[in-house]
């Protein structure tokens, strides 16, 4: 099997607890937990439906300056487009709770998607934070890569320059692009984990 069986929101809540501190819920090298979320267009998207392809998960908050660094510069869109050209699926996830910074509903996300020129396959809404907590997503952006066999092969920051300064991008090592290139070449991911940086995910209290 590529993925663990789908887990409902209630099952994840029971397993992890909504008020539990974020821990390393997903281990690098282990099978990534399956999930279902609704995208900005109202479509249900299930992680396991992309088995056989690498999948990138990107946690997003449009109000975060660290996110703005990568979107205003075009770096995130460029990374998304390159990933898709290599055959990967890119899922952007918003776990911001209603009333908190970064919260998006479907129409808001559609507008943002168009305005920023996002290149991800789906913009997923996780307003209850169920998937974010299951993956222990701590920051925006927080990046995860799942290989074609369903294993989590990378988690951490998008690069090695933990600042909100666009000028740092040109000198940075893009961990996501590097990992995808290594996977495509049949190699192991050389940097499988790094420290995520950015704004804290604004979960439901």
Structural class: alpha+beta
Amount of beta strand: 15-25%
Strand order of the largest sheet: 2-1-5-4-3-7-8
Mean pLDDT: 89
What is the H/E string? HEEEHHEHEHEEEHE
Quick one: how many beta strands? Answer: 9
| Termini Cα gap | 35 Å
Sketch the major β-sheet.
7 strands, mixed
Low-confidence stretches: 1-24
Q: What is the count of helical runs? A: 6
Overview of the molecule:
This protein has 205 residues and is an alpha+beta fold. 26% of the residues lie in helices and 17% in strands. The protein contains 6 helices and 9 strands; from the N terminus they run H-E-E-E-H-H-E-H-E-H-E-E-E-H-E. The strands form 2 sheets. It has a 7-stranded mixed β-sheet with strand order 2-1-5-4-3-7-8. The longest helix is centred in the middle third of the chain and has 11 residues. The chain is globular, with a radius of gyration of 16 Å. The chain starts with 8 loop residues before the first helix and ends in a 5-residue tail after the last strand.
